[in-house]
Structure formats: structure tokens, C-alpha cells
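Milestone M4 deliverable, item 7.
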Amino acid sequence: MARVFNVTGSCNPKLHYMVDITRKLEEIRKLIDAGAYFTINRARQYGKTTTIKALAEFLKNDYIVISLDFQKIGNEEFESAMIFSSAFADYLVNTVRSGKSDNTGLDEDILNQLSMSAQHDSRFSLRKLFDLLSQLCKTAKKPIVLIIDEVDSATNNQVFLDFLSQLRSDYLDRLNRPTFQSVILAGVYDVKNIKRKIRPEEAHKVNSPWNIATEFNVNMSFSKDEIAGMLEEYEADTHTGMDTVKIAGLIYDSTAGYPFLVSRLCKLIDEKVAGTKDFPDRRTAWTEAGYVEAEKMLVHEKNSLFDSLTGKLIDYPDLKRLLSVILFEGKTMSYAAGNPSIEIATMLGFVKNVNNTVTVSNRIFEMVLYNQLLSEEEVNSAVYASALLDKNQFIQGGKLNMKLVLERFVAAFTELYKDKDDTFKEEMGRKYFMLFLKPIINGTGHSYIEARTRNMRRTDIIVDYHGEQFIVELKIWRGQKYHTEGEQQIAEYLDYYELKKGYMLTFNFNRDKKIGVVERYVGNKVLIEATV
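Output delivered:
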């Protein structure tokens, strides 16, 4: 059976095209060899389960790996320590005996004791459970590595915190009492930050039951070279003639190596773009134009990852405000680890720390977030309604007339918001231009902001429409010298994109400003400049 790109469940190299994660497994193994207990906490669909399964196979010659999934333990089984202990023991024994985890070298008598206690001991406590687990570790012919996936499903339960405390206690006493070589907990939330009361009578004193955990710093995103390696395997099977290095670079630039996004883009090119009117086969699909089409499909599709992201904007209003400030106002925010909104945004995968600055994780997420945040304002936005009313005028012969877009935006913005103060215009100008642009290109083209130039003074919007690319620089007027420098910057930027024409939209709050659109040359580049 031919292999495919997979975005549902864990990946199997026999069935799916996969990035080679051997180096990542080697880094994780170093932690295990050192006897570390740690958490693999990454955002949703970041390849955690695939990594865990590959890790179990990677370790099997030197360790006994017992891999569990807490999604298979129901909420009712966390009602008390006795119920949980029985459920955990029963699940562990069944997993080992079903062959889902390697049972070679485990003492059958102790497995039987665990099973019997789970079924018949009405007072089976956590202490008794861990006594038997200690005996299992002592008699095992190889060190045991315990992996628990989806720990998020248990983090709200006191019993789970007690379970972590028992793991910690045995870890601290490991020189005297046999225990697991390594324990790995996997999930979105970092259970290292969960806290519990040390003693009920001292409610103000708290301590993390997982403060023994070693920091997990293995980079689980995919590099350009890793993506290219996967594409080379695909190319060996399909012979599309693609430039694997170039396509890998395009994928990386928009995803920053986020595993789900990488695989989804490849799957879209292979299964949705190929075979369409404009891309009749795989050879035409695996090109830059085919990639752009796949990116447009991805940004506008409904999938579980995007649903989760946008849902969190409702759950965490402060997170929504944080992202709006970064995306629309271009404000630079220092990465403060103690800031709850930044910590949540990082944990959920929205942002990352780049040179101690809060940065949206990747361009795909930026486009999805822009669409979501803008869509919430469409109904009540006069500037959106203005563009929607005249949107057919901006497409001429199947091509987008960007000069006309700027002319109409200047007229609409000047009329609609002439009574607003300058602070409002400076903060909202960029958002309103994107709202104006959205109904014009929606469904055929797409736009995104170039992260490298996003700041309070300058933002560059890249627009792709029917294979044609437009660079629109949005900026605040800061004087003629700065404006002239900006013209030179955009001319250099056009060289990077191999374009001859660029566009500039300047928000000028001087009373003697001249509103309108002019065309000028900067070197050998044509620059359409609009002022509002």
C-alpha cells in the first residue's frame, strides 16, 4: 500500500511519510539514561504521541517501556485513591500482557499480585500500589521507563496530585528503594506547575508535586532539512520533479516546523491541489504556485487545531487582547515568563520567545488569528461594508487592481473616521485596511503580514492573488527623512521578492497633509504611495 501524509493520530513510517526524528529520540534518550523524570508538554498536534511511540521502539533493547494513556482512565476512577490505584494497576497489567508494552523481563508473580489487588482488595491504596511497583522495578531484568500520555485529562484531580507526589517520593528515595528509571508525562499543560497543599492546616504553603522534573528542551519542531528529507522520500516514490529544498523552505517559512501544519500542507498539495483545473497533476502541484494554493486552503479550512486555537480566545480574554496588540498595533512585548497571558499563549502554542520578545509562533497561525479577529468586527465595520459593496470593481480581467484598492480605502477611511482622534487612527488604521482588503480578496487570494517588518512604525502586508504578489507597506508618518528612508527600504524589499512595483500606505496626522495616491519611481522600482 502506498504511503500517505498523515494528520490524524500517530504516524507510522510503514504507512506514512514522516520526518526522521532519530536525532530528537537520541536527545530524549540522554535524559532517560541519566534517570531524569520530565514532562513533554507541547501544544496540540505537535507530534507528542508519535514521538512517544517511536521512543518506545527506540529504547526497547535496553529498557522495558510501559506506555499508558490517561484518556483511558475515566473521571470516575479519580474519585478516590483506592479506585484510582485499582484502575491504574489493572490498566498497567493489561497493557503489558496485551503486548502493547514489552513485558520481557517482568516478574509474572508481581504482575499477578497487581492484578489480584486491583480486582479484590477493597482497601488498595496508593502506598500499596507503589510498593508493588517498586518490587516490579526491583525484579525486572532491565530498567523500566514509564510513559503516560494525555496527562491533561487528570490534572484537575486531587488523586492525580497525590499520584505525582508518590512518584516524587520514590524518586527522591531511589538510592534505597527501587523505582522507575525514568517517568515521562506528556500533554499540553506542564504539570510541573501544578501545586498542592503540603498539609491541610497550612493552606498558604504550596509545593509542586512534580518539582523533581528535569527541563525538557528538545526541539520537537521540524527543520528545513528534516522537511526536505521527508519530501525526498516522497519524491523517490512519485517522481514529481519538485525542487525538494525549495518546497521545504516554503513550508518551513510559513509553519516554523509545526508538525501538524507541515504534514497538512503536504497532504493538501498531494491530495487536494493535484488534480484541480490549475494543477492537473502532481508535477504541477509540487511547485511554488501549488504550495501557495495549499496554504490558502489551509488558512481557510476548519480543522481541530484551528478550532482549539480560536476557542482559547474565548476562554482567555487576556490572551485575545495580547494577540491583538501584537498583530494589529505592532507593539513589541518583552517575553516575561511570569506573565500569565504570555505563559498561557506559549503553552497553547500561539507564541514563542524570540530574542526575549513575544512572537506569534508561525505565519499560518498569524493568518488564522487575523481572520478570526477580523471576522468578529466585520458585521459592525463600516469600512468592511464599504469594500464589500464595491468589491467587484477591484478585480479587472481576473487581476487585482491594488492601486484602486488604495484609492478607495483612502476615500472611505477619510470619510468614515475623519472625526476620530489621532490615537484612534494610529492604533486602528492597519486593522481597518486589512478589514477593507479582506472581502476583496477573500476566496481567491490571501494576505499575511511579514513578521520581520512588523512594528509600531512599519508593517508590510504580502498579498497573493491568482499567482500575482503585492507588497503593501503600512506606516505612520514620522517626518520626510524617515519617509524617504522607508521608500528605499521597500525598494530593497521588492528586490528580495523579485518585484518591480510596490505600494505604500501612510497614516499622516499632520494638518497640512495631502491626502491621495501618487505614483513615483524609486530607482528602477515603481512605488504607488497613498496618504490618509
